[in-house]
Specification:
By secondary structure, the chain is an alpha/beta fold. It has helices at 12-23, 35-50, 82-92, 115-122, 136-146, 165-170, 190-194, 197-208, 307-318, 328-347; strands at 4-8, 27-31, 58-60, 72-75, 97-100, 125-128, 153-161, 214-226, 229-241, 246-252, 259-266, 269-278, 281-288, 294-299, 351-352.
C-alpha cells in the first residue's frame, strides 16, 4: 500500500517511527521547527541507529507542507504541544489516521474533549502511541488469558520501573530533565506520564478480563525539585475498576536495572508479562492449577518495538472500523487516571472518575 506519512518532531520517537514506516515502504516526511533537529536526524540519530541515512525521507519545516495531504500524520513532539497540533491537523488537512505519541496531553487535560467529536466529523481515526499493547508478548498474553485457566481475576499488579538515563542516552543533546518537558509533571513529564505504558497496559488487561475502566484512584507521588525542574520520580497508585477489581501500579524514573512487568493473579493461577525480561527479549509466563507451566520468549531489537504499531495503522487504513487497543478513547482514559493520581496526591484522598462527564478535570471528584 502506497502511504504518505508526515511525522511532526525529529526527536527520538520521530526517528523510530520513521524507520518503522519505511519498513512498510511508506513515503515519509519528517517535520520540525528546528533546522538543527532535522540535521541531527539526517547526520546522527537515524544513521547511528539504523546504519545509514535513508535518502527517500524528506526533511522539511512544517510550513513547507502545511497544505499537503497525508494519509497518516504522526505527532512526536512534547506532550504540551499535542492537543494544539492535533486540532490544527484535523482542521487543515485531516489525515485518515492521526497517531499521537504518549502521553496524549498534559495532566491539565485542556481541550482534549474536543478531539473525539472533531475526529468523528472529519473521519479521522485518532490513536495514542501505547505500542506495548500491540507487541507479540501482549498478543500471546491475551490468548492465554482468554483460555480462562486463571479462574476469577483477583488483582492486577504492574511495575514500569526504569531509570531515565536511557531516555537521555537517546537524546544526547539534552543534559538533564530540566531542559525538557520530562522534568515537569504538569507538562506531561515525570514517572507518571512518561512511563504511562504501565498504566495503559494495566487498563488494557482490566478491560480484556471483563473488569472495565478505572473509577477510583489513590496515589502517592515522590515529587522532586532540582535545577528548576519539578517532577514525580516515583508514582504509586492503588486502583479500583467498575467491577470492584483492585490492583497496584508503580512507575518510576530511578530504578536500575529496569523492571517492567505485569502480573494478573487469578483464583486458579497467574499470568506474568515482561518487557525486556533479558536484553533483547520480551516474555510471557503462565501458571495454573490445571496446566503445566508455560513460558515463551520473544527475541527483538529496539526497532521491533514500533513495527506492530505501524502494522496496526496499516490494518486500520484497510479497515477503518477495526477496533484498536490504542484508540483515542482509551488514551483519554489513561490521561484521566494520571490527572486523578495527581489530584489524589495533592489532596491526600481517593479520587473518583465520572465517565458520564466530559473529558476534563471536572470529571474528577
Amino acid at each position: 500500500m502506497e502511504v504518505k506519512v508526515k511525522i511532526l518532531g525529529a526527536g527520538s520517537i520521530g526517528n523510530h517511527l520513521a524507520y518503522a514506516c519505511r519498513q512498510l515502504g511508506w513515503n515519509v516526511t519528517i517535520c520540525d521547527i528546528d533546522p538543527a533537529a532535522l540535521r541531527r536526524t539526517r547526520d546522527k540519530i537515524f544513521p547511528g541507529r539504523y546504519g545509514k541515512w535513508d535518502e527517500t525521507i524528506r526533511l522539511v519545516q512544517p510550513a513547507e507542507v502545511a497544505d499537503e495531504a497525508f494519509e497518516v500524520i504522526i505527532i512526536g513532539t512534547p506532550p504540551d504541544s499535542h492537543i494544539d497540533l492535533a486540532l490544527e491537523c484535523l482542521a487543515k488537512t485531516p489525515p485518515r489516521v492521526l497517531l499521537i505519541e504518549k502521553p496524549l496531553c498534559t495532566p491539565l487535560l485542556q481541550s482534549c474533549e474536543q478531539l473525539i467529536p472533531i475526529a468523528k466529523r472529519v473521519g479521522t481515526r485518532v490513536l495514542i502511541g501505547y505500542n506495548h499493547t500491540l507487541t507479540s508478548n501482549t498478543l500471546l498474553a491475551e490468548e492465554w488469558l482468554q483460555e480462562g485457566k486463571l479462574g476469577k481475576i483477583l488483582t492486577i499488579d504492574v511495575q514500569i520501573r526504569e531509570h531515565w538515563q536511557g531516555i537521555f542516552k537517546a537524546h544526547p543533546w539534552i543534559s538533564g530533565p530540566e531542559e525538557t518537558y520530562l522534568g515537569y509533571t504538569q507538562r506531561g513529564g515525570g514517572a507518571l506520564a512518561e512511563h504511562s505504558h504501565g498504566l495503559a497496559i494495566w487498563q488494557h488487561f482490566a478491560r480484556l478480563s471483563g473488569n472495565g475502566r478505572i473509577v477510583e484512584v489513590s496515589a502517592m507521588l515522590d515529587m522532586v525539585r532540582e535545577a528548576g525542574a519539578y517532577y514525580d520520580r516515583l508514582a504509586q497508585l492503588s486502583l479500583r475498576t467498575e467491577t470492584g477489581l483492585t490492583g497496584l501500579l508503580v512507575q518510576d524514573v530511578i530504578t536500575e536495572p529496569a523492571k517492567k512487568y505485569l502480573r494478573i493473579l487469578g483464583s486458579g493461577g497467574y499470568l506474568d508479562w515482561f518487557i525486556n525480561i533479558k536484553p533483547g527479549a520480551d516474555a510471557v509466563k503462565l501458571w495454573s492449577q490445571d496446566d503445566v507451566e508455560r513460558a515463551q520468549y520473544f527475541e527483538k531489537t529496539r526497532p521491533d518495538d514500533f513495527l506492530p504499531e505501524i502494522n496496526h495503522i496499516e490494518r486500520i487504513l484497510s479497515n477503518p472500523a477495526l477496533s484498536s487497543p490504542i484508540s483515542l478513547e482509551y488514551g483519554l482514559e489513561t490521561m484521566l487516571v494520571i490527572a486523578a493520581a495527581i489530584k489524589s496526591h495533592q489532596e491526600r484522598r481517593v479520587i473518583k472518575i465520572d465517565y458520564t462527564r466530559p473529558y476534563g478535570l471536572e470529571s474528577l471528584t
